[in-house]
Amino acid sequence: MKRICYILAAVMLLASCSASRHATETGGTPSTATATATQAEAVTARIGLSVYDSDLSCSGRLRMLRDDVVQLNLVFLGMNIGTLEFMPDTVLLIDRLNKQYVRARYSDIDMLRERGIAFKELQGLFWGANMNGREDENLSWTYGAFSKVNRRKIPSAHKVRFKSGTLTTGFDMELSELNGETGWATRTTLNESEYTRRNANALFKALLNM
């Protein structure tokens, strides 16, 4: 099951490393409310995700409501293995195989706080706020194709590479069946009595050291 956990960690790590170091922290109380997407600026898609230079891959769904949430639900061999949910004030990670989860503010997670990460920057990478992606010394997040949803161009092929010393890692994410579907729940419901809540920093350290 370590292979599956690595997929979750890879998405989280690479997304976080790409955010601006000058972003401001968004405070507030973690959100637990369940809302429904009713605005026109919603995007849903099927995803295929593969980890760079390995045989790790999975499929799943991406759902986004602009300025409210980015949800990734990952599936492996027909099983829902995990959820990543970015909200303006809160990050939720659910490891469904090992029945554990993290719900925390951005400031509570070291690797996000140290990079000055805010929801706006994470959202921008998935929506293609900068149509050229992002390139710097340690990170390359580029787009290979775009699709139109609600007259907006959305990146449908993401290529992400992160360099640390001599190590290069990353992932490729392909989106298909993009549409502006609404009516889906914008907050994941979790029966917390069936899961163990983990310390955010301890969980991410364990995943990233696999």
Q: What is the topological layout?
A:
Blueprint: H1 2-18, E1 42-51, E2 57-65, E3 69-76, E4 79-86, E5 90-95, E6 100-105, H2 110-113, H3 119-127, E7 134-135, E8 139-149, E9 152-164, E10 167-179, E11 196-197, H4 200-208
Parallel strand pairs: 6-11
Antiparallel strand pairs: 1-2, 1-10, 2-3, 3-4, 4-5, 5-6, 7-8, 8-9, 9-10
Instruction: Report strand %.
Output: 35-45%
Supply Rg: 16 Å
Structural class: alpha+beta
| Overall body shape | globular
Q: Ends: how far apart?
A: 11 Å
Number of helices: 4
Low-confidence segments, ≥5 residues, pLDDT <50? 18-34
How many distinct beta strands? 11
Largest sheet: 11 strands, mixed
Helix percent reads 10-25%
Structural features, described:
- The protein is of the alpha+beta class and 210 residues long.
- The chain is built from 4 helices and 11 strands, in the order αββββββααβββββα.
- It is globular, with a radius of gyration of 16 Å.
- Residues 18-34 have low confidence and may be disordered.
Summarize, please.
The protein has 210 residues and is an alpha+beta fold. 19% of the residues lie in helices and 42% in strands.
Short descriptors:
globular, 42% strand, 210 residues, alpha+beta, single chain, 11-stranded mixed β-sheet
